[in-house]
Amino acid sequence: MYIRRKPNKTGSISVQVISKHTGSYQVLRSLGTGRTEQELIRLEEHARQFISSQSGFAGELFADADEVRLEDFLSTLHNTHIKVVGPELIFGRLYDKVGYGIIPSELFRHLVISRLFSPGSKLKTIDYLERYQGVTYSTDKIYRFLDTLCSKSDEQPSASKTDIKAQVEQITFEHTKRILRGKIAVAFYDMTTLYFESSDEDDLRRTGFSKDGKHHCPQIFLGLLTAGGGNPIGYEIYEGNVFEGHTFHSCLAAY
Fold first, then answer.
1. Which residues of the chain fall short of a pLDDT of 50?
2. Nearest-CA neighbor of 189 among 250, 239, 120?
3. 119 and 27 both lie in a single domain
């Protein structure tokens, strides 16, 4: 017994099981007709199953069946069905181990993990989250949320700002203490400038001494307080035209 593809006048192709056991060709089973290679492969798989049932020999039946099923499955997939799980499995576990999992904000979790795995602009982050995590955020929502993490030490922020920024810093501080076995013997303070591709200033973005050489661009200062080994303690932001020396005591006082 063997499998034959027989072209038809209509343009389709018939898949048949042929026998020459009696000396003449005989059609034992016609499995149907197909027009695409995938349809013909599927019909031929059914033909192999028929031959196996007649002869009791499976041969490569299971390997071929698996391949056909795999092709059928892959043909149904689209980009919308793809979800990247590796970053959550690895960075998500670290995120929870540090203690950030108690923060009641799924957006904060997405921003932290995507920043570690696929750092990029806000627009690229939105695209990454939508394409590979199946979650959608607007640009305005992300910017409004980031504003809750950037309250200045000398301002009176809203309750939401106070809660989330203080919570993030408290968790970070406690984690650093655990790493250093409960004792922080030395702290380091450093500042950097973050400039904006804009000529407009406001009460925070100011033109000042730029460490990036962008003296014509408004900027802000970011002060970072760390413990030994570079483990973070907290951060504060300041106007772009402030003198660095005037920020040290206010940053220490915040912690």
1. 57-62, 153, 157, 159-161
2. 250
3. no
